[in-house]
Write a structure and sequence with these properties.
The structure holds 2 protein chains of 2 kinds.
Chain A (H helix, E strand, L loop, with lengths): L17 H6 L4 H7 L5 H11 L11 H12 L7 E6 L8 H8 L1 H15 L3 E6 L4 H16 L4 E4 L4 E3 L1 E5 L9 H8 L23 E5 H13 L1 H6 L8 E7 L6 E6 L4 H8 L9 E6 L5 E3 L6 E3 L6 E3 L4 E6 L4 H15 L5 H18 L6 H16 L3 H23 L8
Chain B lengths: L2 H6 L8 H12 L4 H11 L3 H9 L12 E6 L2 H5 L2 H12 L10 E6 L11 E3 L2 E3 L4 H9 L3
Parallel strand pairs in B: 1-2
Antiparallel strand pairs in B: 1-3, 3-4
Helix pairs in contact in B: 3-4, 6-7
The chains are: A alpha/beta, B alpha+beta.
């Protein structure tokens, strides 16, 4: 079931040595670009044709994003910036950490090719502030690539300039949101911007900017190497290629797997993870983002980007199997704590809403809910979902709505405080 | 290294501000008010904005670190693996309360570090301990006290 394209060289190479990556054919595509055998247009066409979609959760077609940015740049004396979003911090997701730790050069090659294809003034790799080791590794790898003449000024026969800078981020979930990331890079406060205008029109320093996820970027050299047509054959029709899945829960085999998109939840559970551990019974499974729950009845749903009939949104590719023994109320409290802590406090619905939700979650865990909590919860979720500035507030609401949809009102009424209120 | 020397290592452009702040934070352990003004002057920005960026960050500090910096992940998966008991155990052993720092100890609950498989996670003075259970806490902390 596993299909190793992106991860084919993991554990075979030494991530600290650029020679090790070059020995398995690394930087071949970038060299082709620099020698003029691959034109920027060909790269753009190949990426568009491959059907690669953003691996950071939203699944926006990468080629389209690039074209939008190029369009808003054309005819204007503006620069274009390319940013790799390596600020992974969603609970239960660790795919970007693996890519950086196992093969940082694949990311750098992808970023360099992207900068070349887009004629970007500068590329940035924004690494989560908490992950100092990853930042060091990327910085070291960038230096090694520079020494090899793969990055820098006046490269190749066409005197191409490829500059990529690693930036250690502020640390915190909200900095992974693209507009907050851009604000943080241009020395503004870590707060989200209103969209539109999208970063492809008005991003870093007011210039068109492309923000791509680590996994998206690391896929670029592989796609160019195997060709867009070959890549399209993997996966589903509208969700092509492979995706890294971080699987957690009481299954026999958990961890990180590279799997073709379009597989069913059943295949993931039984063929890849070997089924649940002995004596466990599946309650539900959460895929992609908090609140995207599927019960045992929907095991035959396909895991793809779109959400439709018999389709399960893949999101970030994080999968959490929850069985009947898992402390569900504790899990909800964990989520509520996460949202309360990571809210940046810019907009009122999110700042206040996540705090109130945490209070409710704390009472829920102690089976000490007030009667009015149920109606309050509805109000908070509605306001949070409809009025919060960035998607963070919506995620916070979705997580609760998922639980309500799955367990119904009874789950909450059973946890109500007994006696007079 | 003095603050001026650190700053001279960076071009005064907005995209370098974070890197400069991280360098200062590493050198001195925190970014003092006086250093905030130095940074502001060098990058030609308003000092409150620099201060806002520092306090908005989870990594940069505006106050010196405590002698013992302990972080425990308490969100989602680590929580369901029992990180609350670890927090309680640390609180009891050191007679402190989580998220109320003293000059000696600072126990902070944090969000995901991407090591969910190896959870629960406890970080002591930058060293990450994996698969921690309450019985191990005493032994881990003994190394630092």
């Amino acid at each position: 079931m596993e299909k190793k394209i992106l991860s084919k060289n993991w554990n075979k190479i030494n991530p600290n040595l650029i020679q090790s990556y070059q020995a398995v054919g690394g930087y071949k595509m970038l060299r082709k670009c620099l020698s003029g055998k691959l034109s920027p247009k060909t790269v753009l066409d190949q990426i568009t044709k491959s059907g690669l979609r953003g691996r950071g959760g939203a699944g926006f077609p990468t080629g389209t994003k690039w074209k939008l940015a190029l369009e808003s740049k054309s005819g204007q004396p503006k620069k274009l910036y390319f940013i790799v979003n390596a600020d992974e911090s969603q609970p239960g997701t660790f795919k970007d950490r693996y890519i950086i730790e196992k093969n940082p050069h694949s990311l750098i090659e992808g970023a360099a090719i992207a900068c070349y294809a887009l004629k970007a003034a500068k590329g940035f790799i924004y690494v989560n502030g908490h992950h100092f080791d990853q930042f060091k590794l990327i910085e070291k790898s960038l230096e090694a690539a520079q020494d090899q003449g793969l990055l820098g000024e006046k490269l190749g026969s066409e005197k191409i300039c490829l500059r990529i800078q690693a930036v250690r981020g502020s640390g915190g979930y909200i900095f992974g949101e693209e507009t907050t990331l851009i604000n943080s890079l241009q020395a503004s406060l870590g707060e989200a911007r209103l969209k539109p205008p999208y970063p492809t029109q008005n991003g870093l320093f007011g210039c068109p900017t492309i923000v791509n996820n680590v996994e998206t970027v690391a896929n670029i050299p592989t796609i160019l190497e195997m060709g867009a047509d070959q890549y399209r054959k993997i996966g589903d029709q509208d969700s092509t290629g492979t995706k890294l899945f971080s699987v957690l829960g009481p299954v026999k085999k958990s961890g990180l797997f590279e799997l073709p998109l379009g597989l069913t939840i059943r295949e993931l559970l039984y063929d890849v993870c070997g089924g649940l551990q002995k004596g466990r019974m599946l309650d539900f499974v959460q895929i992609g983002w908090m609140g995207n729950f599927f019960t045992r009845k929907s095991l035959d749903y396909k895991i793809v980007y779109d959400i439709g009939e018999k389709q399960a949104g893949v999101g970030l590719g994080s999968v959490l199997f929850v069985d009947k023994y898992t402390d569900l109320k504790g899990l909800i409290l964990g989520w509520a704590r996460f949202f309360e802590r990571e809210s940046c406090g810019q907009c009122t619905p999110c700042r206040e809403g996540t705090y109130r939700l945490l209070n409710i979650a704390e009472r829920l865990e102690k089976n000490y809910l007030f009667e009015k909590d149920w109606s309050n919860l509805q109000d908070i979720l509605e306001v949070l979902e409809k009025t919060s500035l960035c998607p963070f507030g919506k995620f916070a609401a979705q997580c609760w709505q998922g639980i309500i949809k799955l367990k119904g009102k009874e789950f909450f009424t059973q946890a109500m405080r007994k006696g007079k209120q | 290294m003095t603050i001026q020397k650190i700053l001279l290592g960076f071009e005064p452009r907005p995209e370098n501000l974070l890197s400069a702040l991280h360098a200062i934070n590493q050198q001195f352990g925190y970014i003092s008010k006086a250093n905030c003004y130095h940074v502001a002057e060098y990058f030609e920005m308003a000092p409150p904005k620099i201060y806002g960026i520092i306090t908005g960050s989870e990594v940069l500090r505006d106050k010196p670190a405590a002698d013992l910096e302990i972080q425990v992940c308490d969100s989602s998966f680590c929580k369901s693996k029992g990180s609350d008991q670890i927090v309680k155990e640390v609180e009891n052993l050191l007679s402190i309360k989580a998220n109320y720092p003293t000059s000696k100890f600072n126990l902070k609950t944090i969000s995901c570090l991407g090591k969910c498989q190896e959870g629960p996670i406890m970080v002591v003075n930058g060293v990450i301990y994996e698969k921690v259970n309450p019985a191990m806490v005493d032994d881990i902390l003994k190394n630092y006290l």
